[in-house]
Structure formats: C-alpha cells, structure tokens
Specification:
The protein has 569 residues and is of the alpha/beta class. The protein has helices at 23-31, 33-42, 48-53, 65-76, 93-106, 111-122, 128-143, 146-161, 185-196, 208-227, 233-241, 266-279, 295-299, 333-345, 361-378, 382-392, 398-405, 408-416, 428-434, 460-472, 482-503, 509-519, 529-536, 538-552, 561-566; strands at 7-8, 46-47, 177-181, 200-204, 243-246, 257-260, 285-288, 308-313, 322-327, 349-354. 52% of the residues lie in helices and 8% in strands. The strands form two sheets. The protein has an eight-stranded mixed beta sheet, sandwiched between helices. The longest helix is centred in the C-terminal third of the chain and has 22 residues, at 482-503. Bound molecules: nicotinamide-adenine-dinucleotide. Nicotinamide-adenine-dinucleotide is lined by residues 181-187, 205-207, 210, 261-264, 268, 272, 289-291, 313-315. Nicotinamide-adenine-dinucleotide binds next to helix 9 and helix 12.
Length: 569
C-alpha cells in the first residue's frame, strides 16, 4: 500500500552495498530480472503510480492510508501471497545482457554493482533460501569495504553541507518568484532549474534579441525532454507557463530573490546591482552568479549589502549539482540560509564559501590543474596525465576539461593578473593559445578535434610545442609513473584545501569533498580528497607534502595539514 507521494526504490548500491534483506531475491520475482537490475543498480526512485504499474505496490490510497490498507487486507481474507513462492518471470537472455551492460557502464563496474547483478541473476537458477543466504554474505562483505566507507562519508558530507553551525537559528526568507537577470548560457540554465523546482521565474534582459534566444533555449530544453519521454507535454506546459520574460526592470519589484547572471565584468555587475537596488522590494535577496569577482565590491553598489549573497552555479546550471553560496562581509545569515534552502529545493548540493578569489571550487581546481601542468613540463604528456586521473576515477582528465571549457578565459586572466616573478610558471598553455589552439571550439587545444565529432586525438604538434617549452627552460624530461601523477594531483588539492580552511574560506573540511565530487567530477566512491587524506594519515601526508613542495618549485605554499585533518568532520 502506498500513499500518493510515496517513492519506492532500493538505493543501497549508491552506498556501496547491495540490498541485504532479500531485495535482490524478491524484486526480480515481481518485476523480472532486467528491470530489477536497472532499479537496484541505479538506485532508481520509482514514484507511486509507476510502482503500482510495476506490481511493486497493490494499491495507492487516495485518502486514509491505514484505513485503505485494513480494508484491502480484509478483502484478501487471510490469503497469503508470499513473494518467495513466486517464479521469476522468464526473460530473454539478450534482455538480461542489455540491462547488465548498461548497469555496468553507468556504475563504472563498481563492486556493489557487480555483486548486485550476480545476486539478481542468480534468482534464475538458485532457490530462494540459498539466494537469501548468498545475498547476506555479500552484503556483510561489502558493508565493511573501503568503497562503502567512502560513499557513506560522502553521503553524510552532502547531508551536512546545507546546514552550517555558523548560521544556526537563521530562518530562510520566503521565495516564490525568482528573477534571473541575463538570459545567456547560465541565466537560461538557472531559469530551467528554478522552473523545475516549481518556482515562478522572471527572466530579464537588456537586449531583446538575447532575451528571445534565452527563451527559445528554455523552450527547446523542455521540448527535448518531452521528445525523450522524460516529461509529458502538459507537464512541460505547466512549467513553461510559470516563466515570464521581460525587458522592463520595474517588474523586478515583485521578485523575492534576484539572481544576476550578466557578463563577468565588475563595472557591468555594479551597474546592474544599482538598478536592482532601485526597484527590488525591501527584504528581497539579491544574488550574483559571479565566478571570480569580489562579492563585496558588487554589494557595495547597493544600499543593502546585507541582502547580497553569491550563488555560484556551474555550467550547465540545470544539470550540475554543485552550487556555492558565497558569504560577503555584510551578508545577513537569513539571506545566506535562503540561498542554501534554494539550493536544496533545486536538488543541488549547496556549499557555503567565503568571498575569496575562485571561492572553494575554482581555487582547488586551479591548484590541481597547476600541478598537472608541472607534471607535463617535467615529462608527462597531457594524454598520460588525463588517462591516469581518469583511471583513478575522475570523469575527465584536466586537459580534456581545459579543451572543453576553452583555454582563452584563463589566458586572459593570466595576462591581466600580476604574478610573483619568482614563482614557477608553465608557459605551455600560453603557447597553445598563441598558436590559436583555444580548445575544442577551435578544433584544437591540448588535443586535436577532427571534424565529424570524433573525440580528442593526440596531436604530435602539441608534443613538439611541449618539448620546445621544456627545452627553453633547459629541463630534461623524465618519465612519470601513473602513481606519481595521481598522488601529486590529489596532494595538490589536499594542500589547497588546508589553505582554504586556514583562511576560513571553507568552514568545514567535508565541504571540500562535496565540492570536488559534485562540481569537478571527482569519483564519489573515493569519498573526496579529504577522505583520501584521512586514509593516508597525517605523518605520511607531511612527508608527501615536503616531496610535493620540492617538485613544485618556488612559489608553492604548503598548508598546515594538521589543521585539515583535525578539523571536526
Ligand atoms: P553569457 O554571455 O552567455 O550571458 C550573459 C547575458 O547577460 C547575455 O545574454 C547578455 O545580453 C546579458 N547581459 C549583459 N549585460 C546585461 C545587463 N546590464 N542587463 C541585463 N542583461 C545583461 O554569459 P554566461 O556564461 O551565462 O555567464 C554569466 C555569468 O555567470 C558570469 O558572471 C559568469 O562568470 C558566470 N558563470 C559562468 C559559467 C560558465 O561556465 N559559463 C559558470 C559559472 C558562472
């Protein structure tokens, strides 16, 4: 029996274990082996109506659940229907093979996924009691596996990330209408995310053509979901009807939360915040989606810096789980918890960060990428670094990521920045940009991208450019093993995390793990860099860090790892 809002599922695999109380033996007897593989291996959440259709529940109680259940039981008149006595529906082996292949691919062959498939497919030839005993044994083994510890760690880190001790007692402000300013890449993604969460959205632009393009992008997104069968047409129409587009700033007056996503330029943003300040209602939360600008300088353009926070979404904004909530000097606690609550309602992982260049995520990632560039300069090829880190579990290697996002933004930022002349500087990315290799969009970056959508191809021209850069510095290339690559990349992240904690930009060590896993493709089943650091232990890490500092050369700032590892959580 299910109440209408019930969600049915067996999410154990997402925690590195398998269902341990008969789930792998009973579910196939109801829905068949292929569907059981799909459900258990993905941790799919099946809504009540679909559960009824699949035979997972007998009835959905439209009113009183208990009374309906009692009435239903009476109707059965003592008849028992034991799942254990049911036969497993016979299935074509091709169908089982298909479900297995898909589950292994999506589950990256994680041990719990493999074990779940074995347990489920065993139902075709192993009796119920033996199947139960086998399931139990596997469950017990996986429960104490490293992977299960790591996934539990990440689970609790994510659960805690939206609750911050420093904001205890603050109550989120009510939000019904979300205004998004700027209908570009980020603005339209943020609008979709808010519409999906049931908010009314006002999309505002300065430019009629840009507004039209943004609205068209949003419409195309919903049309695509309808076409793929992920949403029905009337559902899409309901969501789209909550979107309102406008060029008239006076309409901002009715917004409870304003999210600015205009060009990344302080002057432009300050001017936009002045205009928001002039029309927004008192108490509205005013947020900026800036990636690198100083939130306090933006807030200073308004008469109400206490209402200003950062909401740093990641691209694509309607897909990426991470959302950084930036605390400005004057941000009021209730404005910040409004941001955290919004993140939860958008089904994101909101993390609180201080207002410092790059916040938590981009700063960690910059340290990681810098270390990877060091390794290329010393003798590894970009494709070797990418392959080693992908084998560790990253969704993509750092150089493939750089090509995807484009090398030019960082190039321009480096040109504008003043840098410590003594610090080690790798010229390779600059040389690539100077050669017009700005990444995937120009058909070439660290890799070559031939026409026709073929993926990254290793490019001899890049090897030559790198060899030249090494020779210019008088460096003798040496071979780096995959172990060294992974260890240095992780240590660089851990070291930066220690610095961020010491500076108070990150308040909690576990937030670092949430950021890396949800925003940067760090493998969830490895727990996160702080989890990894805990495993290595403080003494080994101190040695590692001295080693890393020696290899990284001048300009490397070592953090205090004890601080990182003794922080609560
Ligand atoms: P974009 O160029 O795609 O879109 C910006 C939009 O803002 C344009 O449609 C433009 O017409 C509009 N705009 C500019 N000035 C305006 C004004 N004064 N009033 C109203 N609208 C105005 O840019 P984007 O990639 O969506 O980035 C927007 C913001 O999000 C930037 O601050 C950027 O740093 C940040 N951000 C971007 C990414 C990313 O990966 N693209 C990720 C995180 C954060």
């Amino acid at each position: 029996m299910a109440a209408p809002g019930t969600v049915v599922g067996l999410p154990e695999v997402t925690l590195g274990i398998i269902p341990g109380a008969g789930g792998t033996q009973r579910l196939p007897r109801i829905v068949g082996i292929p569907r059981a593989i799909r459900m258990i291996c993905s941790g799919e959440r099946v809504p009540a109506a679909a559960a009824l259709e699949a035979g997972l529940v007998d009835q959905i109680a439209s009113s009183d659940l208990r009374a309906t259940a009692v009435a239903h039981a009476r109707q059965l008149r003592g008849e028992k229907r034991l799942m254990r006595e049911r036969d497993v529906p016979s299935t074509q082996s091709a169908e089982v093979g298909e479900a297995t292949t898909a589950a292994l691919k999506a589950g990256k062959r994680r041990p719990a996924v493999l074990a779940a498939i074995d347990a489920i497919t065993a139902t075709a030839h192993v009796g119920f009691d033996d199947g139960l005993a086998d399931e139990r044994a596997v469950f017990q083994r996986l429960r104490v596996s490293r992977e299960a510890f790591a996934l539990r760690h990440q689970f609790f880190a994510e659960r805690d990330s939206a609750k911050h001790p420093s904001l205890d007692g603050a109550v989120p402000r009510a939000v019904e209408l979300v205004a998004v300013i700027g209908a570009g890449t980020m603005g339209s993604g943020i609008a979709i995310s808010a519409l999906d969460a049931g908010y009314r959205v006002l999309l505002l632009e300065q430019d009629a053509a840009a507004l039209e393009r943004g609205a068209a992008r949003i419409h195309a997104h919903y049309a695509g979901r309808v076409q793929m069968g992920k949403l029905n047409a009337s559902g899409a129409a309901v969501l789209e009807a909550r979107l309102q587009t406008s060029l008239d700033w006076a309409e901002l007056a009715s917004a409870d939360l304003v999210i600015e996503a205009v060009f990344e330029d302080l002057g432009v943003k300050q001017q936009v915040f002045r205009r928001i300040d002039a029309v927004a209602r008192p108490g509205a939360v005013l947020a900026s989606n800036t990636s690198y600008l100083d939130l306090d300088a933006i807030a200073a353009a308004t008469s109400r810096p206490q209402d200003v926070i950062g909401l740093h979404f990641f691209s694509p904004a309607h897909v990426m789980k991470l959302m950084e909530v930036v605390r400005g000097q004057a941000s009021a606690p209730d404005a910040l918890v409004t941001g955290l609550a919004l993140g939860k309602r958008l089904k994101k992982r909101p993390v609180l960060t201080g207002n410092a260049f790059g916040f938590i995520g981009n700063r960690l990632y910059a340290a990681y990428r810098r270390q990877c560039e060091f390794m290329v300069e010393e003798g590894a090829w970009p494709e070797q670094v990418d392959a080693a880190l992908q084998a560790f579990g990253f969704a993509m290697g750092p150089f493939a990521v750089a090509d995807l996002s484009g090398l030019d933004i960082a190039w321009r930022m480096r040109q504008a920045a003043t840098r410590d002349p003594r610090a080690r500087y790798v010229h390779i990315p600059d040389r690539l940009c100077e050669a017009g290799r700005l990444g995937r969009k120009t058909g070439a970056g660290y890799y070559r991208y031939p026409e026709g959508g073929k993926g990254p191809q290793v490019d001899e021209a890049v090897h030559q450019l790198i060899a030249q850069a090494r020779a210019d510095k008088g460096l003798q290339p040496r071979e780096l093993g995959d172990d060294e690559i992974v260890r240095r990349a992780l240590l660089a992240i851990v070291n930066e995390a220690a610095l961020l904690l010491a500076e108070g930009v990150a308040e909690r060590a576990t937030d670092v793990d949430v950021v890396l896993v949800n925003g940067y493709g760090f493998p969830r089943w490895e727990g996160g860099p702080v989890f990894w650091a805990h495993e290595r232990g403080v003494d080994a890490l101190q040695d590692d860090l001295r080693w890393l500092a020696g290899l990284s050369g001048p300009g490397f700032v070592a953090g205090d790892l004890r601080h990182l590892l003794t922080t609560e959580n």
